[in-house]
Amino acid sequence: MKILVTGSSGHLGEALVRTLQPTSHEVVGVDLVPSNFTHHVGSIVDREWVKRCMTGIDAVLHTPTLHKPHITTHSRQRFVDTNITGTLNLLEEAVLAGVRSFVFTSTTSTFGDALIPPADAPAAWITEEVVPIPKNIYGVTKVAAENLCELFYRNQGLPCLILRTSRFFPEADDHKETREAYEDGNIKANELLYRRVDIEDVMSAHLLAIQKAPTIGFDRYIISATTPFTPDDLFDLQIDAPLVVQRKFPHYKEAYNRQGWKMFPSIERVYVNEKARNDLGWKPKYDFRYLLDGLTAGIDPRSPLARIVGSKGYHMHKFMEGPYPV
């Protein structure tokens, strides 16, 4: 199979190309930015360039996007150009090239304001049934791109699967208050309970989606580490998250104390990956229990792939108050 990976110089794109290169598949990496994993440099906004890259392609893994950290540095038009027009160009040319499988990397950020319950309500239980309420141009353009994928499945018969990934970036948190209150590893460890996923598990979900798309046709999936929580925990998570975590993992504080870490006082949403596990046969490995086992054994709880890919950043330069513009 000849597989086109867009965004091959980014976090996920590199992970996919790294993984596919030693296999029997032929992989073609494309990106705006040159790298050792990018075979063609150009813009998906340029349809003629996309057409040339699509020659002989059997499957597309479409990963690049303008992200939330770009909102203050890029115009809304740039978001439309990259996230919507770029996706449209790829879909148009995929149909013309006879592509058999199209996988679009979306984001749990599409849920937007649906993620935040009222103060006196239980934490939000986020499944694919939750209707997105985008709160910025990032979310709006990702939802629009998802809808284009659905349209091309319905009208052109192009098998498309949407993977709404939770956080897997290694960069520091984009909220200054959180960065100042918690050590970076502490933040990411806490998030594995409800809103984070390791890049190796994201990669494996994408490769499964390629295989499953022709049979499934179209659907959306949440890609996040398997949460230990259930709907019965939701009220308590809003009020006293450490108590709930203590019930699930009686010895977690021992591992946390050795690191000088602390749990968030409240957790306001929980991403549920059950549908992806059932439909795709996905078996995510890197969850909170895996992290605790790693801390206890004194080993890095990140996947080997996460350590190799490392940090890419979102901007070409650093800002006065950290990794994100103010």
Automatic annotation (TrEMBL):
What superkingdom heads the lineage?
Answer: Bacteria
Family matches, as InterPro entries: Epimerase_deHydtase (IPR001509), Lipid_A_modif_metabolic_enz (IPR050177), NAD(P)-bd_dom_sf (IPR036291)
Q: Which Gene3D superfamilies match?
A: NAD(P)-binding Rossmann-like Domain
Q: Which SUPFAM superfamilies match?
A: NAD(P)-binding Rossmann-fold domains (SSF51735)
Mind telling me which Pfam families this protein's record contains? Epimerase
The NAD-dependent epimerase/dehydratase domain sits at 3-212
Protein name according to UniProt: NAD(P)-dependent oxidoreductase
What organism, scientifically named, is this protein from?
A: Thermocoleostomius sinensis A174
Q: What is the lineage of its organism?
A: Bacteria, Bacillati, Cyanobacteriota, Cyanophyceae, Oculatellales
